[in-house]
Design a protein that fits this description.
Number of strands of chain A: 11
Number of helices of chain A: 14
Helix content of chain A: 25-40%
Distance between the termini of chain A: 92 Å
Largest sheet of chain A: 7 strands, mixed
CATH topology of the largest domain in chain A: Rossmann fold
Number of domains of chain A: 2
Order of helices and strands of chain A: HEHEHEHHEHEHEHEHEHEHHEEHH
Structural class of chain A: alpha/beta
Largest interface: A-B, 87 and 87 residues
Oligomer: homodimer
CATH class of the largest domain in chain A: Alpha Beta
CATH architecture of the largest domain in chain A: 3-Layer(aba) Sandwich
Strand order of the largest sheet of chain A: 3-2-1-4-5-10-11
Shape of chain A: elongated
């Protein structure tokens, strides 16, 4: 069976590629990177896309990606959100049997799945089921997620651009709040990992700039502590900008937002985005308990993952490269399956490599922000985090502030 | 008294400039335009800024804008949100008397107030009170508002950039919703005028692109009609993107959002932004009554007016120019007071001029979207609106979509 599945570099056949989970601003770079690379390898005949991930495979809804013009592929690469459509679905063993039937009919020997940890799990399940069934397929997961929570990766494609959006949003919101002072709470995506919320800290230019407080899912959230923190900042600056991860949870690990929202997907994830409930709750608490009149909350929602026109150039380049490398790993004959992982070289200069890791190493479980990135206070990030995140986001727009030299009073 | 106030082109003295109301991405262009122009006129001696609009004048918190370096002024011009700070405050006659006392002490003879209709009203009140008191001051309002609802103006500085943000956000959100289909409701700023919400229509590239439904404050909102509209679009496209103005109101003119939010400012405006309540209400109604499972709502909130990095070049240029022209009008000796108004020349090519209009003509009352911009259905905009808005927003990023030529089924 092993020989049937690997067979050295000599395996030939069609490939299918699909996208899964939440879209990103650069996920189509990975798709196009894989397509363009696949065209260079004789082992790969047909290049098919499955519409809406696993769903398209189950329903035999495939498209022929060799029929896309190079110019259109490049347009698609620069366009946010999953061009093939996406899905949130964990395959059952019965689903896998159906998928293999479709793959067999279309002589598909290479399977690429672009997504986060749930999509890595899907790829892993399909790979394991294929092994059990003796179905010859090379299964590769291509990393992406704005949450930046894939294990084995220094960071993930999609994160840099979403982090850039969050940083630019906080830069503007800090200026807005400075002009009309009050308390402003912004809820940022991130179910279990605080990386994206933490990126708000990149918005700071001047010493009194917000966000002044940053709450991450990695530290238990206490409402009393939060109110006290806001009061302290407000007393000092006359205003307060707060970054809150949608995934903040209490001492018992129960998400604060889940007290309001009960919808889950088949991976068991609670739906946290697409509702302003958490922000509104926190704003109401501040109004009621901190005795501050101007309190506002915004929930960045889906804007932060698919906004058109805010892309980190480094992120776009790396997203492309993981697509390219997944195809190279698959046709190399050295691996039957795997995932792409971005590794950062030590040293001051920013350099990365893309390595092949085992599917099981990235599937399912997520990575959290390391302790060294979180301030001991639990309501801020460290310089180590800023050094880590800055190259991923790229150079941010320049911010100007008036010197505002006071005119002597004549009263 | 009239001679005391006008005195031909010979009036000399200091000037003060301030910013008021909601910030925009380009409001500092107007500030810097006025400062740079003021430096060219011998009539203007000191160039002062008042911190937080009227508040700074009442508290005698002025800064010396001649002490800003040209390079820093240009940095500030490119930075969103009111660099001098803002305020929402309508002056009482007592406030005016206090203001005149401060102006007198500082030999201020030129007053410039950058803002929307409420700020025009403030300028008008100050001008009228000055006339009554025989206080010699030239009062000029400099137009701005993302709402685009100033009378006498073809459009207002700040609108183009906010509209660009809304268009780019909807472009991305449409792609996001296409990849993970469902109903998505986005709440856009706009208290009384639907211009900003209408700009969402600029996001459409392909015939099935959203927003599929657009609800404006200019047409009464019916929940039953809304649910039926969403169901019809969902039946056709398997998904639905909705743009809703925060200011949508029922048949009696009561804002739907005001059923939840009760905070008002001294101009009597209900606070509609900074809460996800309206979006969440609409999403809950769709879930409950339209039997659609994936329903999400985002409220764009403050992002759309101060986001760093999304600016319409035309908007930036015009914002600069209204600042310049206000100073020219003030020193010309032809007018004691006035507001700047952007007028568009007829014809296909986009050309504008800036004219001086009476303060009373722009103060207080707002402009609504003309009927020709709203589709007869009441849930969309017309081609006339798109033609009107396109030049204000500038060229939008290119969007690519796969041809996705189907692979023949082999089942």
């Amino acid at each position: 069976m092993a020989t049937q599945r690997s067979g050295g570099a000599g395996v030939t056949g069609n490939m299918v590629i699909a996208q899964s989970g939440g879209p990103t601003a650069v996920i189509n770079q990975s798709l196009v990177g894989a397509i363009v690379e696949a065209k260079k390898h004789r082992e790969i005949k047909g290049i098919y896309g499955s519409l809406h991930g696993l769903k398209g495979l189950l329903e035999e809804r495939l498209c022929d990606l060799r029929k896309e013009s190079p110019a259109n592929l490049e347009r698609v690469a620069r366009t946010p959100s999953s061009a093939l459509g996406s899905v949130r679905k964990k395959p059952t063993p019965e689903d896998c049997a159906k998928v293999f039937e479709v793959l067999r009919r279309h002589d598909i020997r290479f399977f690429f799945y672009i997504g986060g940890n749930d999509s890595a799990e899907t790829t892993h399940i399909i790979n394991e089921e294929a092994r059990k069934a003796g179905f010859p397929i090379r299964c590769f997961h291509i990393c992406k997620t704005i949450d930046n929570d894939l294990r084995e990766n220094d960071h993930t494609p999609g994160y840099g651009s979403a982090a850039r959006f969050v940083a630019q949003a906080f830069m503007g919101d800090n200026l807005d709040n400075r002009s009309l002072p009050g308390v402003k709470i912004n809820v940022v995506m991130g179910r279990h990992a605080g990386f994206l919320t933490a990126a708000s800290a990149l918005a700071r230019v001047f010493p009194d700039d917000g966000p002044h407080l940053i709450y991450l899912p990695e530290r238990p959230f206490s409402m009393e502590r939060f109110i006290a923190d806001v009061q302290a900042v407000y007393a000092k600056h006359g205003r307060c900008i707060v970054a809150v991860s949608e995934g903040i949870a209490d001492e018992k690990g129960e998400p604060i937002a889940s007290k309001f929202i009960k919808e889950t997907d088949s991976h068991g994830n609670v739906q946290l985005s697409g509702s302003g409930a958490l922000g509104d709750l926190l704003a109401a608490e501040v109004k009621a308990k901190a005795n501050i009149s101007r309190v506002r909350a915004d929930t960045f929602g889906y804007l932060q993952r698919s906004f058109v026109g805010v892309v980190s150039p480094v992120d776009a380049r790396e997203a492309r490269q993981v697509g390219v490398m997944a195809v190279r790993f698959a046709v190399s004959g050295r691996f039957e399956s795997g995932s792409t992982a971005i590794r950062r070289a030590p040293g001051r200069a920013y350099r990365t490599t893309i390595e092949r890791v085992e599917l099981a190493m990235v599937a399912k479980e997520t990575r959290h922000m390391p302790g060294e990135f979180i301030a001991p206070s639990g309501n801020d990030v460290t310089t180590a985090f800023l050094d880590y995140a800055r190259p991923l986001v790229g150079e941010l727009p320049e911010i100007g502030r008036l010197k505002a030299v006071p005119v002597a009073r004549r009263g």
